[in-house]
């Protein structure tokens, strides 16, 4: 790059901002100060707009599919909301739908997966894997945890044109046949269970996989995130919420699981624990190009190989992500932290539960995934796509109770979190006493994990980018003072046999990324 061109790129206007798929536009200075891959994220904007255009052009197909799954005739009006009313999350776009006739008025949500956010271009089949796991979670909770209120799943379709519908929207013959199949399935004790969904062929096809769900929002039920900041200081509302979350955790844990993994929906309608543990961070990092560390059919009978594969996956992400470190010292600090986490991992695995049983957990549970009434009683749980059977050590009080990111829990925020954690645990223990007298209680495990510092190990390992920060802030101090640059330089040599070459490669990778970022702002592809 010539000196004059490099100088011109450095003069990118500070008030220019790039559009991002989620959240406000980002300035050049902010882009430099984050470890996210902003160059990649800006590409999602174009892909999202293209998907919106394609879906809007296929709105007649949407209507036909909705009537197909609902068992409705052509005389029924099916209104697809305009694009400005669509609700976009990190992985899906939710399209409000209203079905109306002389004797029917019903609101639905057509939830369409976004392939460009689900690693489909890197790992074909990822979209169907994600939807298959989510459908499996819905079916499992319907059958095994009826006390957990979730939206009714009317039907769904995969990207390869396989369509399935709940038996209640099918003919009497289909319902009777499904009942007979379930009876026989239980009689011969086949693995998993037979769900209430069966194949329902259709010639209609959308450009992505989808789910047709009940709309659970109403005047008396809305997302917790909409009122969280306003009422989080209200003790009565917090208690109601904590009771509801506690009951969710206890209900999901009521049926112990033999392996670490996710439920998968089969073409014959069966639901089995045969998919890799599809946690949210894994999908997000694979979408950025991190090579796969767990094959789709991989499940784990013990905790150690799962932890080893997760740590290996984060190492692969370290090597691939261009904005991971910015100079040699930063790189060696990262390598040292990762090495020490591998060495210490055995301290945070319960040997009495290493081979199970394992516990179902919502990996991405947050304030926008739960609906509450005015007093914060939980009215519905949504977004079950990251439900996994995981080690019991992974259970923790939700970090978002402080209103900040997991790597922001330090100092005053750390004290605030500890107060909220203790308040939650008191409620959780009371709820647990109401349902079990088990001496190996979940609350005891959660307290032990907190006291040992294991909570930070598990939160870091399951996060996108907080692992090294949580190690430095919460784990390292239990063994030593903060590592010196000399310590990090020495330890980093043992990260791999070619550690010196890795450091040089990562620094060069960052320099190339920085130049590309400057060019991106300079080219005028930004929006103000």
TrEMBL record:
> In which domain of life is the source organism classified?
Eukaryota
Concerning PANTHER family, the annotation shows: AMINOGLYCOSIDE PHOSPHOTRANSFERASE DOMAIN-CONTAINING PROTEIN, AMINOGLYCOSIDE PHOSPHOTRANSFERASE-RELATED-RELATED
Name the record gives this protein? Aminoglycoside phosphotransferase domain-containing protein
Give the species. Answer: Colletotrichum tanaceti
């Amino acid at each position: 790059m010539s000196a004059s061109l490099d100088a011109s790129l450095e003069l990118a206007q500070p008030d220019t901002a790039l559009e991002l798929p989620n959240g406000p536009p980002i300035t050049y200075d902010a882009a430099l100060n984050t470890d996210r891959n902003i160059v990649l994220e800006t590409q999602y904007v174009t892909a999202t707009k293209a998907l919106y255009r394609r879906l809007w052009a296929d709105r007649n197909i949407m209507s036909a599919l909705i009537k197909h799954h609902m068992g409705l005739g052509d005389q029924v009006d099916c209104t697809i909301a305009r694009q400005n009313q669509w609700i976009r999350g990190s992985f899906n776009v939710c399209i409000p739908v209203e079905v109306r006739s002389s004797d029917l008025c019903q609101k639905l949500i057509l939830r369409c997966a976004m392939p460009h956010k689900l690693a489909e271009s890197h790992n074909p089949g990822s979209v169907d894997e994600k939807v298959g796991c989510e459908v499996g979670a819905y079916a499992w909770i319907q059958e095994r945890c009826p006390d957990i209120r979730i939206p009714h799943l009317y039907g769904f379709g995969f990207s390869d044109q396989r369509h399935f519908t709940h038996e209640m929207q099918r003919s009497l013959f289909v319902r009777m046949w499904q009942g007979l199949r379930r009876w026989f399935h239980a009689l011969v004790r086949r693995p998993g269970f037979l769900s209430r969904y069966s194949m329902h062929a259709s010639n209609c096809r959308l450009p992505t996989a989808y789910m047709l769900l009940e709309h659970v929002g109403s005047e008396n039920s809305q997302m917790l995130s909409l009122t969280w900041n306003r009422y989080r200081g209200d003790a009565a509302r917090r208690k109601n919420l904590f009771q509801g979350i506690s009951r969710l955790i206890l209900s999901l844990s009521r049926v112990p699981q033999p392996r670490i993994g996710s439920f998968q929906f089969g073409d014959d309608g069966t639901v089995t624990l045969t998919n890799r543990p599809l946690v949210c961070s894994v999908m997000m990092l694979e979408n950025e190009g991190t090579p796969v560390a767990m094959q789709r059919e991989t499940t784990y009978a013990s905790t150690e190989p799962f932890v080893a594969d997760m740590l290996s996956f984060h190492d692969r992400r370290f090597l691939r992500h261009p904005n991971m470190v910015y100079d040699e010292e930063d790189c060696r600090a990262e390598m040292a932290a990762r090495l020490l986490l591998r060495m210490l991992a055995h301290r945070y695995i319960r040997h009495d539960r290493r081979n199970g049983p394992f516990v179902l957990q919502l990996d991405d549970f947050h304030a926008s995934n739960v609906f509450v009434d005015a007093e914060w009683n939980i009215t519905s749980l949504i977004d079950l796509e990251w439900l996994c059977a995981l080690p019991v050590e992974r259970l923790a009080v939700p970090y978002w109770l402080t209103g900040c990111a997991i790597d922001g829990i330090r100092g005053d925020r750390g004290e605030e979190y500890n107060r909220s954690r203790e308040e939650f645990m008191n409620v959780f223990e009371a709820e647990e006493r109401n349902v079990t007298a088990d001496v190996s209680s979940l609350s005891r495990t959660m307290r032990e994990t907190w006291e040992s510092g294991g909570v930070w190990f598990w939160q870091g390992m399951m996060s996108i980018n907080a692992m090294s920060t949580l190690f430095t802030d919460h784990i390292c101090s239990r063994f030593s003072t903060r590592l010196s640059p000399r310590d990090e330089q020495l330890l980093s040599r043992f990260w791999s046999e070619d550690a010196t070459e890795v450091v040089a490669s990562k620094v060069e990778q960052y320099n190339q990324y920085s130049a590309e970022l400057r060019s991106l702002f300079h080219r005028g592809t930004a929006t103000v």
